Amino acid sequence: METRVVIYARVSTKGQDFERQLLELHEYANKMGYVIIKEYTEKISGAKKVAERQALSELLDFVDSSKVDKVLIYECSRLSRRAIDFLSVIEYLNDRRVSLYILQNGLETLLADGTINPIAQLVLGIIGQFNTMERSLIRARMESGYRTYRLNGGQVGRKVGYRKTNEAMRDQYAQEIKLLKKGLSMRQVRAITHTSMNTLQKLKKIFIDNNAA
Length: 213
Fold this sequence. Notes:
By secondary structure, the protein is an alpha/beta fold. It has two domains: 4-127, Resolvase, N-terminal catalytic domain (Rossmann fold), CATH 3.40.50.1390; 166-208. Helix content is 53%, strand content 13%. The protein contains nine helices and five strands, in the order βαβαβααββααααα. It has helices at 19-32, 54-65, 76-79, 83-95, 118-151, 166-172, 174-181, 186-193, 197-209; strands at 4-11, 35-43, 70-73, 99-102, 107-108. The protein has a five-stranded mixed beta sheet with strand order 2-1-3-4-5, sandwiched between helices. A hairpin with a 4-residue loop joins β4 and β5. It is globular, with a radius of gyration of 19 Å.
């Protein structure tokens, strides 16, 4: 019986490309005799929440509605640098009996019989925490740079009077809006997406109560 797989690749900036990731993932899939049924790529920070990442959100929707055996990624941080999202995605796939394979680590979340791989679960939990620590260090270095910039007279932040458009809000919070329209409470949506209640209140007011298109 054929093994149906989905490939996911991500880079952080527009100046980067995911050709190396795709090349090696395709080579691995071909070597194993897998059938690649879908490929998702995006250029976005791994620190962004799943709800803000269109390709990853589409992948999860596809997995939920299609017959998929495995998801192949190049390395752990490509999935997410947020430990909570990283582990939540793995749990989401586990619940649907879809195995996640990480090429650089040679780790797979499910065993051949479809049960959870306890070794992979342990190692990936540790890796997820390390990715979060690395993200925190990057943020600390950026904040230090901002402080130095401000001390030298620079200004950081949005321009006075800046306001995000409804269209930008709709693009950034598509999943949250979708869940609210389905009738889920703000607390339920917050539990799924980890979006702040303040933001959810704004979304509800604009897109649900006022029925913005």
